[in-house]
Amino acid sequence: MYFQFELKKTDGQARRSVFHTPHGLIEMPAFAPVGTQANVKTLEPRDLHDAGAQLILANTYHLYLRPGHTLIERMGGLHKFMRWDGPILTDSGGYQVFSLADSRKLGEEGVVFRSHIDGSTHHFTPEKVMKIEQALGPDIAMVLDECPPPLDRAYNEEALARTHRWAERCKAVHTRRDQALFGIVQGGVFADLRVQSAEFLRGLDFPGYAIGGLAVGETKEQMYATLDVTCPAMPADKPRYLMGVGAPEDIVEAVARGVDFFDCVLPTRIARNGQLLTPDGRMNMRNAQYAEDPRPVQADCTCYTCRTFSRAYLRHLYKAGEISALRLGTIHNVHFMLELMRQIRTAIEAGRFDAFRIDFLQRFRITDQAKRHEQRALRKANREQP
Amino acid sequence: MYFQFELKKTDGQARRSVFHTPHGLIEMPAFAPVGTQANVKTLEPRDLHDAGAQLILANTYHLYLRPGHTLIERMGGLHKFMRWDGPILTDSGGYQVFSLADSRKLGEEGVVFRSHIDGSTHHFTPEKVMKIEQALGPDIAMVLDECPPPLDRAYNEEALARTHRWAERCKAVHTRRDQALFGIVQGGVFADLRVQSAEFLRGLDFPGYAIGGLAVGETKEQMYATLDVTCPAMPADKPRYLMGVGAPEDIVEAVARGVDFFDCVLPTRIARNGQLLTPDGRMNMRNAQYAEDPRPVQADCTCYTCRTFSRAYLRHLYKAGEISALRLGTIHNVHFMLELMRQIRTAIEAGRFDAFRIDFLQRFRITDQAKRHEQRALRKANREQP
């Protein structure tokens, strides 16, 4: 048996679990750093090991276009290609394709789209995506789904039925036994649609389930409320994956509602922007106040960046436009996220997760300035890369 | 005594020596990677240690402008600021200022120039540069000199006298006993001027001497011929530093003529361009021929990049525009240069340097394509950054 989900302890809705995969186990709750193009930007496998990463994510859309899934298959698959010997998850490419907006055309069969690299025309169907993901060879593959705007009821109703038919078609052609195919619950912020989706997919008996279509336009309160109704409708004996969510405060709130793992570009992207995560919120390392600050970014952090460099030096590297700044910031932010997950797991084991949640949220303040920075960065990223 | 030069063995004109500094010894012949802005681009101190770096270089012009020498002094000096505990050398900023061309004005007193960052006006005099370098606190500091076009006889004659007066003024105000101030021999490609310069500076009794003004427009043959006459005119009991030279073939030829150490941005800059160094010459990693090549860049190389990744993966990272490509390429190229220096030292110790030189040059072919790439990169770099 390649995959096994062990639920070790619950604390309220929060779950402490282990998911076994062909490339090792994943202690959950877990956070997966994102390696879009088979590389977590600026990091090497040894950095990810140092930070305690278990699962990492790669993007099917990007790798299909470049260097191509057949090339990666000929090179021995994604693990061997990128030299990551731990578990890997690939998304289905659906989210990227649907965010191409003007450059794609959707039908029952699948979706036709234009490459953001060279404008060439391609199509994704459930069958084609299964072929790609099986060629890439991650431990966890995702079904092709549609990700509608979460507040548009009519669109969500129409898309949901098609997404369900696509899930059936994916399941029908997926054959790799050393790869777990996960279903994706959709339905926007609408409780009845979410429950309907969870129940439909439960019938297909996937080895794990994701919650898709959140953190893409709704408020945080709407996201949390959606998790409140969706998680209980999902099987208790399978891992639950909240896709694309990764702000520390959202992770803590989602774990409290029963989510087991996460992925997000946030820690790596904001690091390249000069925003570093600490238990007291975000720091903008370009800020003049750090110009002569001899302290590390975070006093009790054990990452290489904090063990080695001062805020003053990091600020200099960011201001001077040095590539090293992006990397040293990324090393810290990824370490911060994985340390947060370790603390979450410990708190659940000790049966004190709710106290941890309240303490964490009280301390982790997000300034308006940092929020604006993030929004600008996300807008820019959406323009640049689908 | 803070500094000591031990000449351990000669083999023809080639010298195997050790230079002792307050931050440790430098086995020579040596190559210094360049950390213009107090950071060897994309690398960390641990990477430089792994590669076997001993001496690194930082640029006075850049650090004076940003973050400022007084800030670095307040942060405990350059070693502490950038967390490099080995020897550091700073140039005088002269070369950068003189390459500003239209944005600077020269007189007997010194040079007035406009910052490439914000256009603000600054001046460098010998006295000011000594103040800056003593504040930065490297182990080796360089006198302020003028670096004329190497083929312009009249300009070189006029500049040489001024450069000599500036060397005297630098020497007169330099007081840090834990910092070695080196003189710089100028004179373009003109044998009589070089000899005159070497003899004048010998009279000032510097603890070491550089050869400046080469590799900036003359042919390789002119450079080698200039070294043929300059090295013998320099003191035998002091280290000889050929500034800004770093193409592997030039290093081998310069060692054969009696040079002890080198610095150059070439290995780091061409790595960011996708050009990787091997004993068989340069490889352009963007080349389609490597798309499915499972081999490391260089089979017998022990750097992290070669121990870990295939050419296929590196090519993918370069083509996909991943920052990691620039870093993995830099790790390899810096390791290649430092390994070359180890081989040179071993060959001199064994009294077989000339055989090594002939073998190396025969194998290390530079294709015309690679040459064109390098020239384009250097032209671009000169436009972007003085």
Folded structure, characterized:
Two copies of one chain form a homodimer. With 386 residues, chain A is an alpha/beta fold. Chain A has two domains: 30-264, Queuine tRNA-ribosyltransferase-like (TIM Barrel, Alpha-Beta Barrel); 271-372, no CATH class. In chain A, 45% of the residues lie in helices and 17% in strands. In chain A, β11, α8 (191-204) and β12 form a beta-alpha-beta unit. The two termini of chain A are 36 Å apart.
What can be said about this structure in brief?
2 copies of one chain form a homodimer. Chain A has helices at 45-51, 60-65, 69-74, 78-82, 94-98, 126-136, 153-173, 191-204, 220-233, 248-256, 266-272, 304-308, 311-319, 323-349, 353-363, 368-384, and strands at residues 4-11, 14-21, 24-28, 30-32, 56-58, 88-90, 104-106, 111-114, 121-124, 140-142, 180-185, 209-211, 240-242, 261-263, 275-278, 281-284. Chain A is α/β, with parallel strands linked by helices and 386 residues long.
CATH first level of the largest domain in chain A? Alpha Beta
Per the CATH scheme, the topology name of the largest domain in chain A is: TIM Barrel
Alpha carbon gap, first and last residue of chain A: 36 Å
Largest interface: which pair? Answer: A-B, 39 and 39 residues
* CATH-derived architecture of the largest domain in chain A: Alpha-Beta Barrel
Gross morphology of chain A is globular
Averaging pLDDT over every residue of chain A, what do you get? 95
Quaternary arrangement of the chains shown?
homodimer
Query: β content of chain A, as a range?
Result: 15-25%
What is the number of strand segments of chain A? Answer: 16
Q: Please work out how many helical segments of chain A DSSP would assign.
A: 16
Poorly predicted residue ranges of chain A: none
Rg estimate of chain A, integer Å = 20 Å
Percent of residues in helices of chain A: 40-55%
